[in-house]
Amino acid sequence: MIKSFTTEAANTVYHQPIMLRESLEGLAIKPDGIYVDTTFGGGGHSRAILNHLTTGKLFVFDQDADAAAIAATINHPAFTFIQANARFLQRFLAFHQIQQIDGLLADLGVSSHQIDTAERGFSTRLAGPLDMRMDQSGNLTASQIINSFTGEQLTHILRIYGELHAAPKITKVLLAARTKQPINTTQALKDIVLPFSPPRQHAKFLAQVFQALRIEVNDELGALQAWLAQSKQLLKPGGRLVVISYHSLEDRLVKRFIKTGNFEGDLQKDLYGNPLQPFVPIANKVIVPSEEELAANPRARSAKLRVGERTSWSDERLY
Ligand SMILES: C[S@@+](CC[C@H](N)C(=O)[O-])C[C@H]1O[C@@H](n2cnc3c(N)ncnc32)[C@H](O)[C@@H]1O
């Protein structure tokens, strides 16, 4: 457990916030506004938002008990931490009598703390159990997926979430290996799959395999779509949606949602051909970390930030 971290230590050791300035600019914080951070992690973004609030409020989610321990060190009248999956965003906010918000920030994926804690099983470098749960009380682990899912399911996960061309071949070897003994450690998984890695690309290949499993364990794309859809109802006209994503599957969903209000990227139009957009993108191009940030923090390298502003258009007007 990391309960002994001080607030300051937590900020440097736990996770270095990515595109902090750009995130704050995207949120365009009103000091009296109501804000949500769906991915607290080490709280770097949350603390910066709090610094901009006077009478405003910040509601923060994280499903990880370690993040909850860090959040417990923040003593600020505007701050409310909710240890839950953000897929239940609207339900928890309703519990706190919040129906409308001015801005929502999400910094997707895993924190440095989660990656660097060997026993969480997220790291391709460290020896640990094949766990990969962001919520330590969750039912599904990576080893359960590898040892019990069908070949078809495994191929789907590796191909779609890992974008691995060799998915069927990797599945075949996993199925054969698990009949001999269960695959329960990061090292065992690496030993089995590495022969399928393109030469000189082992790190990238392993990252793809681990990413695929992590996405399935945590239903990351399902959760993302669930809370994004709810954000449409929660954000006031003029409210800001700011999302930092780390792989193309997430970024595609965010991009389409901000452009069209749905995940298919299907822009609806009224009888006169005017677009019916719940959001307008704030920057035309995706925002990426500066050279300085990349030099200081290589973990920022795949980050993409998108900002949408809620319009006054609402689906209900269609009916
Ligand atoms: C990249 S870190 C966030 C780092 C944070 N912005 C900071 O500056 O420290 C992502 C965090 O979000 C949490 N998380 C990811 N998806 C979540 C979800 N759907 N619901 C709740 N927490 C989630 C993870 O457990 C992790 O702690």
Description:
This protein is α/β, with parallel strands linked by helices and 319 residues long. It is built from 14 helices and seven strands. The chain has helices at 7-14, 20-27, 44-51, 65-71, 89-95, 112-116, 142-148, 151-161, 167-180, 186-193, 202-217, 220-234, 248-260, 291-296; strands at 34-37, 57-61, 79-82, 101-107, 235-245, 279-281, 304-310. Strand 1 (34-37), helix 3 and strand 2 form a beta-alpha-beta unit. Helix 8 packs across helix 9. The relative contact order is 0.12. Residues 1-12 have low confidence and may be disordered. Bound molecules: S-adenosylmethionine. Residues 15, 17, 38-39, 41-45, 61-64, 67, 85-87, 107, 109-111, 134, 223 line the site of S-adenosylmethionine. S-adenosylmethionine is lined by residues 15, 17, 38-39, 41-45, 61-64, 67, 85-87, 107, 109-111, 134, 223.
